Amino acid sequence: MDYTLLFVQVLNGLQLGLLLFLVASGLTLVFGILDFVNLAHGSIYMIGAFICASLTFVLGNFLWAVLVALPLTGIVGYALERIVARNLYDKDHLDHVLGTFGLVLVLDTSAHILWGPAGITVPLPLWLDGQVELFTGAVIPVFRLLIIGTGLTVATGLFWLVNYTRLGMLIRAGASNRTMVSALGIDIQTLFALVFALGAMLSGLAGMLIAPITGANIGMGGQIIITAFVVIIIGGIGSMKGAFIAAIIIGLIDTLGRSFLDTLFTLIMNENAAETAAPAVSAMMIYILMAVILAVKPQGLFPPKVR
Amino acid sequence: MKRLLSAALAATMLTGLAQAAEVKIGFVTTLTTGGAVVGKDQEKAVNLAIEHMGGKMGGLDINLIFGDDGFKPETGKQVTDKLVKQDNVDFVAGYIWSHVLLASRKSVLDAGKFLISANAGPGPVAGKLCHENFFSSSWQNDQTPMAMGEVLNQKGVKSIYVIAPNYAAGKGMVAGVKRTFKGEILGVDMTTWPTQLDFSAELAKAKASGAEGLFVFYPGKAGGAFMKQYQQAGLKNSLPLYTVFSVDALSLPKFQAANFTDVLGSQFTQQWDPTIDNAQNKRFVADFRAKHGAYPSFYAAQAYDSMFLIQSAVDAVGGDLTNMDGMRAAMKSASYSSVRGDYTYGNNHMPIQAFYLREVVKDSGGNWTTKIVQTVYDAHQDTYAKDCSMN
Fold first, then answer.
1. Which of A87, A90, A62, A213 is nearest to A148 (CA)?
2. Chain centre to alpha carbon of residue A101
3. Looking at the predicted structure, is the pLDDT value of residue B2 above 80?
4. Buried-most residue among A136, A154, B178, B202 (CB within 10 A)?
5. How many CB atoms sit inside 10 A of residue B175's CB?
6. Touching check for A264 and chain B: CB below 8 Å?
7. Cα(B60)–Cα(B166) distance, integer angstroms
8. Which chain A residues are within 8 Å of B229, Cβ to Cβ?
9. pTM for the whole thing?
10. Are residues A195 and A29 in contact, defined by beta-carbon separation less than 8 angstroms?
11. pLDDT at B17
12. In the prediction, which pLDDT does B146 show?
């Protein structure tokens, strides 16, 4: 067993998990509190990536671009809530799915028109573009460490926000019983719009962070949204803690599966068969996990207390 | 009543005549999703080809209908069915992706139409599933990586690690390099296609394997993502990269905008290059650049060729589209002027052609493009030809 490789892969898994958490946290907020199924959450991830990519060229620096792109993405989220989502809250989940699927198509095509089909490669400042050697043999790109750091910081911030602030209290109260909250004189509409914009910013941030790695591309949101749904289903819909733990588990399972499954398979089958079987099985693993969790704990690992 | 009938009859005859006076060509490519960047380039090249022909083939007007496969085999088959059944086209060309071609080929061939692949060249289509009405204006998938395997041998590389996407073409690329590379292959990772764009785990494994080189196939946007991560992982000196179809005229302007200089000097094998010296290629590259402000990609070059291949068929029969044998014989002779220069067709209607080693360089205007460094094969035939029962 190569422990250096294992260490590097665990870091890679952690990084993937934290990115997933950024997307899933917004999704679980909106799904858990607003009871709104938002397929377009992934499109906001794409919009965030594109806005940040364009700004990187305008401002000349990736970090400034992120700082400016974050509020812009929040505004996009706020606008989408006003124009589209708000009209769908009273309808049932199928209408949410239909409405937001339409939104996915609209946003993808808008991005196509605005930024062209080619996508954008995002340059990083030199100090972020290199690598560090944590110990002998364990070389990690600096930018991936930055993603891990950002992800952990945002997770801590969200934990504080939800548990120790007035807004967080309202969010939790809204998740438990929204009629009661509005009966107590809280402007539930504004609260919902804020939550939606916050979710959009989180998702957009994930998109901005992945853009220097994969580039900003049309349709990139469609890939991550499915995994994000798996995360919140495993974690328990509406639970921030659940989203965090499930995202890390999935990030690790996915990365370690891709890394070591083929070696594992060669123990029971020949090399060629393992080469073909391993990617197929590792792509399925997170869904297998979801199926098992749904069978054992249908509410997810950490369901929010009352609904 | 009688007059009405004869008027109706005349009208039908007129439309009948109008239909006969045109050649209908369907072109299936990817015009939406992240794959659209490739499809749009092909669309530009096809339109340029039609313009260069003056809108005529064999005296007939050209009626061109594009179909969008949405980067999915099922959508590709659907749009192919529509072209064949509803539009009743005479030729179906295009197909970037091997899995889309494999899903769609039967719809075209069963209907007795010609099918021209302008990119995809999966093994089965060249071997057991070869068909008299199928022609390729590109290559068989395994050929380009076979040329790269040969280059690796010449460079004295002893061991490589392989990363490629897990679909028909990815498997073909791996099979191709395995066939010619004489050194040791220390590991093969097949990744989920087209969704996986983060290759951190695979790059870490490749590095840990201690291989002398890394062989990679990532077409379209995935190529850009891979190159970027390869640079970020800092592997340029310890694990040199050898690619096929992963760096192209579509990604180079993006790399240049991001000043991603690591890609300069990178090498890959191909059957075509914008610098190939013949009149057809010069005109194609110059006009394409004048019109779109960028170099055409190899996808565009093959799409351009596919139109001239079809023209050679329609010209040969003087516009008589019922003469399938005549058109087939004309295409089989590959007598049109191709942008890659002359080539011939094998028994399976796959090109027997030259393969070059291309290198990324700056042109005189400072634009990032490629030039030919060496000829790897003069006339290379794919290995599936022997499985094809045609002769």
1. A213
2. 18
3. no
4. B202
5. 15
6. no
7. 43
8. 141, 213-214
9. 0.87
10. yes
11. 46
12. 97
Strand B213-216 to strand B241-243: parallel, antiparallel, or no bridges (unpaired)?
A: parallel
Question: What is the amino acid identity at position B66?
Answer: F
Tell me the chain A residues in contact with residue B188 when contact means C-beta distances shorter than 8 Å. 275
Q: Return d(Cα B191, Cα B36) in angstroms, integer.
A: 21
CA distances from B103 to A18, A272, B29, B382 (A): 38, 25, 14, 22
Is the pLDDT at B110 greater than 50? The verdict is yes
CB contact under 8 A, A119 and B207: no
Indicate the helix (H) or strand (E) that contains A151: helix A142-164
Low-confidence stretches of chain A (pLDDT < 70) are 1, 305-307
Nearest CA in chain A to B229: A213
Residue B5's CB: how many other CB atoms inside 10 A? 9
Neighbours of A188 (CB within 10 A): 17
Domain ranges of chain B: 2-139+277-352, 143-270
Closest alpha carbon to B324 in B117, B54, B112: B112
Q: Can you tell me the ipTM of this complex?
A: 0.87
Element (H, E) at A274: helix A271-296
Starting from the edge strand earliest in sequence, which strands make up the sheet with B91-94, in order?
B56-57, B60-68, B22-29, B91-94, B114-117, B134-136
Classified as helix, coil or strand, B133 is coil
Residues 6+ away with beta carbon under 8 Å from B333: B345
Name residue B215's beta-bridge partners: B162, B242
Strand partners, B370: B360
Question: Hey, is the C-beta of A112 within 8 angstroms of any chain B C-beta?
Answer: yes
- CA-nearest of B39, B98, B142, B38 to B355 is B142
State pLDDT tens for residues A26-84.
Answer: 999 888 888 899 999 999 999 999 999 999 999 999 999 999 999 999 999 999 999 99
Nearest CA among B173, B166, B188, B66 for reference residue B123? B173
| Count of residues making up chain A | 307
Name residue, tokens 């059957």: B271
Q: Is the pLDDT of residue B117 over 80?
A: yes
Which residues of A are less than 8 Å from B234 in CB distance?
130-131, 139, 141
Instruction: Domain A3-296: give its CATH architecture.
Output: Orthogonal Bundle (1.10)
B143-270: CATH topology: Rossmann fold (3.40.50)
- Tens digits of per-residue pLDDT, B57-76? 999 999 999 999 999 999 99
Compute the distance between CA of residue A248 and CA of residue A230 in angstroms, rounded to an integer. Answer: 12
Alpha-carbon gap, residue B351 to B377, rounded angstroms? 13
What CATH number belongs to B2-139+277-352?
Answer: 3.40.50.2300
User: How is B11-32 classified by DSSP, letter by letter?
Assistant: HHHHHHHHHHTEEEEEEEE--S
Segment holding B163, helix H or strand E: strand B159-165
Residue B375 pairs in a beta bridge with B356
- For A213, which of B34, B198, B201 is closest by C-beta distance? B198
Encode pLDDT of B182-236 as tens digits: 999 999 999 988 888 999 999 999 999 999 999 999 998 899 899 999 988 989 8
pLDDT tens-place string over residues B305-359: 999 999 999 999 999 999 999 999 999 999 999 999 999 999 999 999 999 999 9
